[in-house]
Amino acid sequence: MARARIIPIFVPHLGCPNECVFCDQKRISGSPLPASAGDVVLALERAKTLGVTGGELAFYGGSFTAVSPALQRQLLEAARPYLADGTIGAIRLSTRPDAVDAETLAMLREHGVATVELGAQSMFDEVLAASGRGHTAADTVRAARMVKAAGLRLVLQMMTGLPGSSPERDVETARRIIDLAPDGARIYPTVIVRGTALEELWRAGTYDEHTVSDAVAVCADILPLFEAAGIPVIRLGLNPTAELSDGGAVAGAYHPALGELVRSELLRRRAAALLEGVPAGSRVTLHVAPERVSAMTGQRRANLTALKAQFALADLRVEPSAAGEELLVDVER
Ligand code: SF4
How does residue 176 score in pLDDT terms, banded at 50, 70 and 90? Predict the structure, then answer.
């Protein structure tokens, strides 16, 4: 049976003159070698053999448009026959806001690129400078407008917990990103990766770790903003890799199920709001849609333990709701 799917090609650090403090592309992408046209052909031939049709070729992990124009064309030309035969229907890539111009965007579009992802990271210049990003928030605004004007889909990536940032700045960054009306967003809470400048700053005590619980708290403030604006958050947290899990992530907000933790926190907050005024000693049942029972309960029953203590309840349990309601509270005194 034909299958549609994303075919990722990692372009680690290729052409990137920058030294973002958090970045070790080799570890983050799990691939130590720059991509070549041969890699593109190999991946697409494999996809074709598996019967993929209408897939999406995704160049991730680097600064695609900062690569030499010749190499950009080689990588894209390698994909052309597979666009023609329907193995893939579109191409997406990620790049830096200061590596985008109208001519490049037109070339990308001609080669079948449908989506450009920009690493905005923060909308505060002080945070961008402290993080070694080498571009400004104004660069992001300009690039975002150009991507849309070129008729390409725009995805903006932001980070939380960067040096010089704060939860308030992270939330404001989300608001300013929403103002740019992207078609989607990715949120990457800062992870301290072994061997990066950020690890040195952290070990020297000049950077405070953005813990998993810090990330969950701020992302639970941010996620509803994107949802209310109708902008899908297509990724929350770094993709887990064996290397990061096996010690590559030395500290910071690395958790293989960060998105699930944030959804769980959002449910805890909603339950807490509904439990306001419930008398101490009550026995309470929370009814949620069956697929949300585990998020409502929380990892190691964390939500139930916290809510039970906060409202001094005699008993608190979660049950799947037959009617499929989002969240209902049933109080028995
Ligand atoms: S721009 Fe920064 S995050 Fe991106 S590859 Fe270069 S150093 Fe890494």
Answer: very high
